[in-house]
Amino acid sequence: MSNQSFDESNILETKLQDKITQKQISKRVPDFDQNQVADEELHKLLLPDVRDLPLIPPSSIETNFVSYFAPDFIKPGHDQYVYRHANGLCVIGLAPTHVAFKDGGGITAVDFNVGKSDRSGIKVTGKRKKNAQHFESNTALCKVCTQDAFYIVRCCVKGSLLEVNDKLIKQPELLNSSADREGYIAIIMPKPADWLKVKASLLSLEEYKKMREGS
Amino acid sequence: MSSESEAADVNSYTAFGGEDMQLFRDAVRSLPSHVVKDLLSIGVCMRCIFRLFGMHGHVYSCSSPSSLVMCAILGEPSCPEEHMAVSSLKGDEDKKDPSSSDDSEVEPEICSICLGILQFIYYDAKGMLVKKRSAISLALSISEQIKKEGNQLDSFSLEVSIPPVIQENEHNIHLYMKRKYRSELWFEERLSKCISTKEALKFAMANLLEKVLDVKSGPSSCRIRLTYAQTKPSSMVPNLAAGGEGCKRRKTVANPGFDSVNNKLVDASNECFDFSTTNRNALGESSTNGLEDHESSECIIFPKDKVNEPCHLVFLYYRTPIYIGGRYLKFSRNVSQTRWIIDDERMGEASVEEIIGGNILPACHGDSYKFHAAGREDIDVRMLGSGRPFLVEIQNARQVPSEALVKEIETKINNLNTKLVAVKNLKMVANEGWTLMHEGEAEKQKQYCALVWISRPLEDQDLQSIASLKDLQILQKTPIRVLHRRSPLEREKIIHWMKIETIAESSQYFLLHLCTQAGTYIKEFVHGDLGRTCPSIGSILGCRAEILQLDVTDVKMDCFLVE
């Protein structure tokens, strides 16, 4: 990094200048020059080469997660996704081919009060994730309602429920606009052994696309 | 060290052997002689006698004279005739090897109070019995060990640790003396000035070590630690609860940054030091930690069959940690801040701590290093601009690097041909460096530059709407990428200012410059983390936003800014 030698030679120059022109030139100017040079050097590093940039970059989901799909989960048409992060956490949500999206008017409401408890009420605390409920893959997470019907969304993955997307309660339309991102349903933390078991029954993105070709 | 060369060294350091002898003689004669003889007869060594009577200073460094001379000093008529020589009476002790072992008849073999500590008798690290018999000899031995490792000292601080049984022994002697000499004139005044075995040992050793090492003693980061421990209980034994506590206390010597050194020490002394701090004497009467007087009972203070075992001496020299601080820059997107290994595989190609610490440690000839930094950045984030403050803590440095050497290290790191990391303003800092770095960490602002892509072309309006947001408050749920190891919380953070810099050839890519509160997750602020960070760049601009690259351009802290 040439910054350092640049700085040092600038300091020398500065000292010399000061001696020569004590009264006339304010001391601020040489310091400013020095900073400016450093900033320009920095800026050169920051600016990317546009030729290296892809037209459309991969999304944060593509970069940070591996996408899996569970087609016809328990019931036909109930297609769900599982995004798995490198740290083991799984984001659960409705896949685009889920039968709920086929109803006219889309999804109108989301209710987390299913099974024995209201999933949106659980408070998980601490690094050890105290109070997290342990669910099986077929445990109900919530029900999504359309004009005509309602559908149960399930965990898909056995593990501890860390969080549900409670925004969906007030903004169920998130599922219609971006079910694959802001409309996620929940985050689950499976044990490594449990993940390996369920992974075998999930489809990769490619496999899922093929299966649902034309739907 | 052969006894000849040792004797020669000893002689060279005690050129004033004659003065020493005078000092010793005067000291002995200043004490009531019947008491001295009495104490010697019950097994108390001369130096313990000196300290019972509150003597200070140089007298402890004097070598023990031979028994002949001792007799002469004491005016004892019943000395072995064959050693009677006029020259000895004149105190020509410097001609004779001071470590001669003739004095077993006058002074006890092993003192019943100090167990040989003040006689410089001990078991060494290998379990061999060592009888130095003079302070200077021990001092030379210590100095040899220190210099062997190439240590450079500018001063030293002497620390001594002795087993509690010595305190008990002393208490017993006090009782004995009280009983016998309570009525005598000198008793009250002199015995109250008794100084401890530790102090006496320090008197004996400190000024000699100063001479031998050629540096001053006093508060210092260079520590010479002498730890005496019992090899086995001096009499029978139960391990009372109090004893257990004593052990625990010793194990948790709290000395920050002292780990490896401490472990060595604790291991060595724990091997011998598992025994009680109280003991029962032959009559089965227990003396207590509270040191009560058993005035009423006829207890035998010194059972005749009591064997005094010398102590095990563990000698340790260490230096308290030194700190070298500065600022680092990271130019690579494949270098982590600290060593990062998962399943035996290293993540990234190198780490900042290894590059910096690995170059400082050898220059100091230290045992190990610890790397501390004011915050951290991800492996794929560059650290540019003024750099991030850091401290490298070196344990047990044998040499403290000079300013010039530190400059050399800085140049060396900056000229590594991999050019992954650079350092600025590298210099030794005092212990305050630590607090300086962590002071007000939460308030510190950081400045970043992110390469952002949005799902629609950038408009002029966007530059304005972004630039107009000052001290924007955002709410971040714990990002999913760290949620596995951090608490699920919602954190309020502040984005102080933002500025979009357009990129000429692109309508959807731009550089986002921003300054935020410490602890803000920038990546999540750009892409929104599935809506869990709110607002986000995407939500502000009403489209999808992705972050491709992130650089830290300024860590706004005052420390380590100047050389």
Automatic annotation (TrEMBL), chain A:
It comes from the Eukaryota. SUPFAM superfamilies: Single hybrid motif. Belongs to the ABITRAM family. PANTHER family: PROTEIN ABITRAM. This is Protein Abitram.
From TrEMBL, chain B:
Residues 84-105 are annotated as: Disordered. InterPro entries: PsdUridine_synth_cat_dom_sf, Pus10-like, Pus10-like_C, Pus10_N_euk. It is an enzyme of class 5 (isomerase). Residues 111-221 form the Pus10 N-terminal eukaryotes domain. Residues 323-555 form the Pus10-like C-terminal domain. Belongs to the pseudouridine synthase Pus10 family. This is tRNA pseudouridine(55) synthase. Its EC number is 5.4.99.25. It comes from the Eukaryota. Keywords: Isomerase, tRNA processing. It holds the Pfam family Pus10_C. Residues 84-99 have a biased composition (Basic and acidic residues). The lineage of its organism: Eukaryota, Viridiplantae, Streptophyta, Embryophyta, Tracheophyta. Coiled coil: none annotated.
